[in-house]
Amino acid sequence: MSMLVEENPAKHRYEILVDDALAGFTQYLPRAEVLIFTHTEVDPAFQNMGVGSALIRGALDQVRAQGQRVVPQCPFMAAFIEHHPEYADLVTSPA
User: Fold this and answer.
1) pLDDT for 4-25, tens place per residue?
2) Which of 12, 56, 80, 90 is deepest in the core (most CB within 10 A)?
3) How far apart are CA 58 and CA 76, in angstroms?
């Protein structure tokens, strides 16, 4: 099973492809150098397979590489960051 996380700027979200099929996304509102993440969704066919965590990890790694910060309003992303403190430095307050 191959997973690829890509940003889709036109839809303001990061998407995860599993074996080339869209398996989920995490949506954001862009505010300068801050992305306010509002919603994460994983297709039911891909739940309980680590797809959601891979999606959030991939999105946060790309946010870090671009020098941006996040506001995790999405409960799934907030919980992921709480359980993975190596991403806590990306969290900021909404502007």
Assistant:
1) 999 999 999 999 999 999 999 9
2) 56
3) 14
Q: Which amino acid is at 34?
A: V
3-state DSSP of the chain: CCEEEEEEHHHCEEEEEECCEEEEEEEEEEECCEEEEEEEEECHHHCCCCHHHHHHHHHHHHHHHCCCEEEECCHHHHHHHHHCHHHHHHECCCC
Give the model confidence (pLDDT) of 60-87 as tens digits: 999 999 999 999 999 999 999 999 999 9
The domain defined by 3-90 carries CATH number 3.40.630.30: yes
For tokens 């891979």, the residue is 54
The b-or-e profile of 31-49 (16+ CB within 10 A means b, else e) is eeebbbbbebebeeebeee
